[in-house]
Design a protein that fits this description.
seven-stranded antiparallel beta sheet
Length: 182
Amino acid sequence: MIRHITLALALMMTLPAAADDVTDAIESALQAYKDGDNAYAIDELKYATQLLNAMKQDDLAKFLPEAPDGWTRELSDDMGAGLAMIGGGSGAEAKYSSDTDSFTLTFLADSPMVMSMGAMIGNPALGGKPIRIGRAKFAKQDGDLIGLVNNRVLVQASGASEETMLEILKTIDMKGLGQFGQ
């Protein structure tokens, strides 16, 4: 428990001033710990962790490209809910639409599922056609474009033609995305 409190205090000292809810939760956890209420201290630390994870997901969403001329982009708020079921991580998703086409672009970072996907992307034995976008390795599988950036961020585009999705995928800051959260 002391290790968790020490970590929480270290986090609190490095948080920006805008993270008031996080700071409040960590301070509340520390007070609960001092009062001997370990269960509440743990709950508050979990809450602070949830808030930090939400901030991290917002940071990941910044890598979703703006919609090109003639297109719209709608960010999804549902991405975080399912991540706990697949082992955690951060995710962001947007739907891109034009008058004639639409597709979904999804990022999944630092998830155990992503690590296991690396060997499958672009593996000819699994039927994937290898594609390069910048330094990232992608594959076309069942109409989707699936890539792995810096062996930790899964990028998936699905719902439109390869050419249409590539147009927007090529605008992603792949280098920045690969360094996300580090």
